[in-house]
Amino acid sequence: MKGIVDPERAVGSSLFGGAFSFPVMVAHRSALEHNITTLAVFAQQHGLILVPHAKTTMSPELIRAQLDAGAWGLTVATPSQALTLREFGVSRIILGNQVFDPAGLDAIAARLAEDPSFEFLCFVDSVAGVETLSAHAGARPFQVLAELGHDGGRGGSRTLTEFLEVASAAQAADGVELVGVAGYEGALGSAAEVRIYLHRLLEALEHLRVRNPILSVGGSQWFDVIGRELAACQARVMLRSGAYVSHDDGYYRERTPYTRIEGELRAALEVWAHVLSIPEPGLAVVGFGKRDAPFDEGLPVPRGRIADATVLKVQDQHAVLRLAPDSPVKAGDLVSFGISHPCTAFDKWRVMPVVDDDYVVVDLITTYF
Known about the structure:
Family: Belongs to the DSD1 family.
Distance between the termini: 16 Å
GO molecular function, one term: lyase activity
CATH topology of the largest domain: TIM Barrel
Pfam family, one: Ala_racemase_N
Protein name: D-serine deaminase, pyridoxal phosphate-dependent
Strand content: 15-25%
Keywords: Lyase
């Protein structure tokens, strides 16, 4: 098992006591608990329904903690993820994407037929999408959110006219039930752009004739703006943030709303690895790489005694660092790094130790990607 050489001794032992091999990624219990509670409280205080994005962790243990903290349900990105969460026992799922997967839709339709209490919603932004859902619907209809996007963004109709065409098709189709509007503001670059976009979503919502509608928005960068701008919205506003659960030392540390509002999220993930070589003065090669830590939205962040180093590049199994001129680091040292972008961190580990503040392992969390 990656990172664990003695599973029977893992829980209850020190991370450095011999039950674990390196590199290993750990999650800090105190940070996880703080983050889960912080966003649950934020959502409650702002009248938002929290539906966290499970694609970040795909961990049944963390998903259960989010539900126990008050999450309405969970969001996923694919039919496969939705079916996995059903195996975890999740009863409310938003598939925050367009869906054209025949086998996936058939399987979800079967789950809906089997369990009347299972609630499933997905996005649609084209007539073709509506037709696909209709063709694979079972005894219960697929509930859909018509998605309105923005220029340069991901999915979603780009104009109100196109949006209303899709909404009308959904309302007319057999096996499809229109229940509201969806959007994604996370790719926008400023609060002003987000405000304009949110008001476009509200305008779209006003054109729908839907009882008790849903307005679903997502992302971990602008939920403060969402909380202010949608405070008076009469729809059920569902927030799909995902990365908050573990936060990070890079991408989200710089972009979290808590750089603008009171409070904080805490980086929960940390990678430990050995310095393998000092091949020339000021250069270190460390024994972890792309298979162990994310690198798509910033490189790993040196911590602790190497906090003044710089990661130059990450290779398959190696990280190359530029050390400070007076660095005492030597080959064989065990050093640690924070990560940037948690949504591509958990998928690299099937089992991850959870540690307390003294690096005693208190639990093991599993992931299913």
